[in-house]
Amino acid sequence: MNENQEASLLAQVPHGLFIGGEWRAASSGRTLDVTDPSTGRTIKTIADATPADGMAALDAADAAFPAWSRTPARERAEMLRRTYDLLMEREEEFALLMTMEMGKPLAEARREVAYGGEFLRWFSEETVRVQGRYGSNPEGTGRMIVTQHPVGPCFLITPWNFPLAMATRKVGPALAAGCTVVIKPAALTPLSTMFFVKLLEEAGLPKGVVNVVTTSESGALSEPIIRDPRLRKLSFTGSTPVGQSLMAQAAHGVLRTSMELGGNAPFVVFDDADLDRAVDGAIAAKFRNIGQACTAGNRFIVQRGVVEEFTRRVTERVKTFTMGRGTESGVDIGPLIDDRAVAKAVQLVDDALARGATLRTGGHATAREGTFFEPTVISDVQPGSDILREEIFGPVLAIVAFDDEHDAVRIANDTEYGLISYVYTENLARGQRMIERLETGMMGLNTGVVSNAAAPFGGWKMSGLGREGGAEGIHEYLQSKYTLTPDPFV
Ligand code: NAP
Question: Does domain 265-452 fall into CATH 3.40.309.10?
Fold first, then answer.
């Protein structure tokens, strides 16, 4: 792609707020700049919503709810399916846009478009499968009817690391269930969501069903929406501390909440693992999205008999990586999202080294323009190091050794997070024991990538509440009603 192609793509992306089916400027006239993290340059200037704009978006979602919730399921399904088809036709443009605003290499951006699109296809299929039940009560005196109803207007807040898929993973099931939404993407990467909403518009979405607000003051804009009694559901993906504060706000209206929060994934390799597979899996689990994934392997916990061999092999692979702007061919590692992310990677690596870890490769921020941090491997990480406790969110693979299975489970579960774990073993019984003993909502058993629109994604412990995707996903946006009627024969 050359600069002209990039400019013409950016010109097609809306720059306003989308409220009640109209693209409009912020009521204050304020704007915010979106930058390319690989260059630090502004790529687009967009509307910066005020709290009043946020409330206007909620007004629109509330006004659209009665008609949308009564729209036949088949019509809602077909609207989602049309949007999926449009997205696939424009896969390459979406991938490029995502790379420009977020930094991930183009090949990974294409995979995110495919993954994000699957939520539209999957939930278009789920729309017509929402079922209730009807049966006799145990006493035989009445009939019990259970029906499913959309929860109402929803507020969806998404992070910057998967700018398209986190939006489709929420909008897909919400629309499928008959809910209307206000979506607030992260200020760092709002463009993919805005471009996606333009597709929904092209697919014929009625006015007000989806509304988008982009803002530099997410807290001030969100709080009045969350406290408004018309809102019935909050779905958030982001960090655990922000999720906790939003849950406290949501308590006011006893809102339904879905919380997809932070992770600290253990990646456990036993002596009996297939080491080729384990190394491939480690590279995928760690360096996908430049390490900026909630599912990223955070602690590589490797049995003593293979730890040196595993370390040597992953280090060799990491040394071959090419760092650069994600649009350039052959790039494996793009920039981190901003200066704060680089500073955090520097601090975590320095702390681990100061406590006795060994640097195998990388370890530094780079002097080039943009926010880059070298792909890094450190081994012999000592207990008490910050890197074992905190979510790294960068391309740093940190290795600790363990002695036996009991030790592995203890280290793996020694975190308040519980999103995902990875286990490599060729011993079936051991694999089954790990499924039962590791405290995470998801597990990759001999694989380093698990996400799939057909599966329930979500965490245990402080990694969250609720599930996105799978048969479970649509139920996050539905509420059941039980009705009793007398026995019709009496
Ligand atoms: P973040 O700072 O918590 O932000 C997430 C979203 O919340 C953004 O849209 C942000 O908007 C908004 N936000 C921040 N403060 C807010 C407030 N006071 N009120 C309302 N909204 C607020 O997280 P992030 O740095 O963007 O994302 C990285 C985190 O997300 C990591 O912890 C990662 O593990 C987690 N994550 C989890 C999953 C999962 O499925 N479990 C998936 C992806 C990411 P602004 O940035 O514009 O302020």
Answer: yes
